[in-house]
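Structure ticket #2291
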Amino acid sequence: MRHAETAAPVGAWTLEFIGVRPDTAGRGAGRYLLDHVLAATPAQAGFFLTTADPANVPLYRRFGFADLRRTTLGPLDVRAMVKPGTGTRPGPARPRDPARTPLRRR
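Resolution: structure written out below.
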């Protein structure tokens, strides 16, 4: 995984994990969560994520993520994906509780 993560742009926010309960899959819950996280997070340098589930790739692409690197780890094909930043400096940020966010800053 470190090989895939070395592709992360400096200063980008890393989306560590986002998921929905299996009984809610296919109903737009993941799209809603991802939309909220991306809209609520100032990301001048962009966002970075990795996924080993090919079913996730179309969703991430709809949100503007593009393939950055692919790494094969045994039976897994891990994709590193990036969404470009806003390019503008965000206003003052409110303090965040790191335990309540799925993101971490690189």
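Closing remark: The helical segments are 2-5, 29-40, 57-62.
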